[in-house]
Design a protein that fits this description.
By secondary structure, the chain is of the alpha+beta class. It is built from seven helices and 22 strands. It comes from Senna tora.
Length: 434
């Protein structure tokens, strides 16, 4: 008998160990530890919503359920009558994907022998989003933040060293690739009146751009200055024609002005002469500037057409903000203009509150047979922007969860009546019934 007990004891200990280990795996799988980015996001949302910490319980924020997408963000600060009005516009995200971002990785304790105290799980795909290739036309200056990663192609690669500043002469056009953001370095004073959309083109913004371009050609006037962030390449615009004359027109000349400073110029002056004729039209009547088809692009972005939907929308927004001032002579100032490629995260969470008397919960129409709820649950979805190692909430919206259909026993629907008291109903005979 004693030998039987000795044999059963190791088996029981083995079963208890397996049960506890499986329970620990299940609990950690259901409630994974939050990485720091998610914890900071949770605290920011709780402060923003104003939920009392002692009444509400916030749960969710599972990084495995986070959807990741890329978009373009536009930020503008406009000063009108000594009042600064900020604009923040965001393009729709075309595609949401489940991506394992590095900032959502949980740091684990290091194994014996590791030099660092913590080991972080990393994802091999940690690239940042970039803007689509675009063209810039001179005269203007470009300040390169990532100067060591600048690449020049005129049209062949040129070793110009570490470039911190590139000046585009009048008539020079370059294609920018790999930029993460483009921003205005100095405020601009823009004249009024602002003409509204004309024949499907952003006439007002095109007119303002041509006036700034004309002012940049004035001797001694400051050039339009932009800052580019990201490992960028500047290249001569590619030509669809294979003729040698077209390739010569697209070729740019490089002139070294100082260490880290070069000037790019075009041997062809046709674009400059066309721009001068555009200014001559501008000095007459502004809407006539849009009559020639070659003046429908918005300087300095040579690849941006005046009929672009985003450009038309911003012009309409600016006209509504200016109001009657848009049609009067005057000026306003553009303090900030920033266009950047951003990574956004969409993740859901749950807010719970225990119901008490006097909370005002409306239970009218609630079935009598059903158990009254003791908790109030609200489902939300947050749209947040990834900024380095931080996740900044942009918008929090309530969402309706998936409604589960109720399954009710027949006796509950029939008022708990037995089958013996149910009336007997004889259906009409069917001649095809065997």
């Amino acid at each position: 008998m004693r030998s039987i007990h000795l044999r059963i004891l190791p088996i029981a200990l083995l079963l208890l160990h397996s049960c506890f280990s499986s329970a620990s795996l299940t609990s950690s799988d259901i409630n994974p530890p939050y990485p720091k980015a998610i914890s900071d996001l949770k605290e920011a949302i709780v402060k923003g919503l104003g939920f009392p910490a002692e009444e509400f319980t916030i749960s969710g924020f599972d990084p495995r359920e986070a959807k990741v997408g890329h978009s373009v963000e536009y930020q503008f600060d406009v000063e009108i009558d000594h009042k600064v009005i900020p604009f923040k516009l965001l393009e729709d995200v075309n595609r949401w994907e489940y991506v394992d971002l590095p900032i959502f990785q949980v740091k684990e304790p290091a194994k014996p022998g590791d030099q660092n105290g913590l080991v972080e799980k990393r994802n091999s795909d940690n690239g940042l989003p970039v803007l689509a290739p675009f063209q810039l036309a001179g005269p203007m200056e470009l300040w390169i933040q990532d100067a060591k990663d600048m690449r020049l192609s005129l049209p062949h690669d040129v070793d110009a060293g570490v470039l911190k500043k590139v000046i585009l002469a009048d008539g020079a056009v370059v294609t920018v690739k790999g930029a993460r953001s483009v921003s205005l370095r100095h405020p601009l004073d823009l004249p009024l009146p602002l003409n509204t959309t004309h024949n499907g083109f952003a006439a007002g913004l095109l007119t303002l751009a041509e006036q700034i371009r004309h002012a940049s050609r004035t001797h001694g006037a400051p050039l339009l200055s932009l800052r580019i962030v990201g490992p960028t390449s500047l290249a001569s615009p590619s030509s669809s024609s294979s003729s040698s004359s077209s390739s010569n027109n697209n070729r740019l000349k490089l002139k070294r002005l100082a260490p880290g400073l070069v000037e790019l110029s075009s041997p062809s002056k046709t674009e400059a002469s066309e721009a001068i004729s555009a200014i001559d039209l501008l000095q007459g009547e502004a809407p006539t500037l849009l009559t020639p088809t070659q003046f429908t692009t918005m300087w300095p972005f040579a690849s941006l057409n005046g009929s672009n939907a985003n450009l038309l929308g911003f012009e309409a927004l600016l006209a509504s903000v200016l109001g009657p001032k848009a049609s009067k002579k005057g000026s306003f100032r553009l303090l900030k203009a920033d266009v950047s490629a951003q990574t956004f995260v969409k993740i859901g969470f749950l807010a719970e509150k225990k119901l008490k008397e006097g909370d005002g919960a409306n239970l009218e129409g609630f079935p009598e047979w059903r158990t009254k709820p003791e908790m109030l649950r609200m489902h939300f979805e947050v749209l947040a922007k990834v900024d380095g190692d931080k996740v900044i909430p942009e918008r929090v919206i309530p969402v309706n969860p998936l409604i589960v259909e109720d399954t009710v026993a027949p006796n509950a629907l029939d008022g708990n009546v037995t089958m013996s008291r149910m009336p007997i109903i004889h259906p009409p005979p069917n001649p095809f019934t065997l």
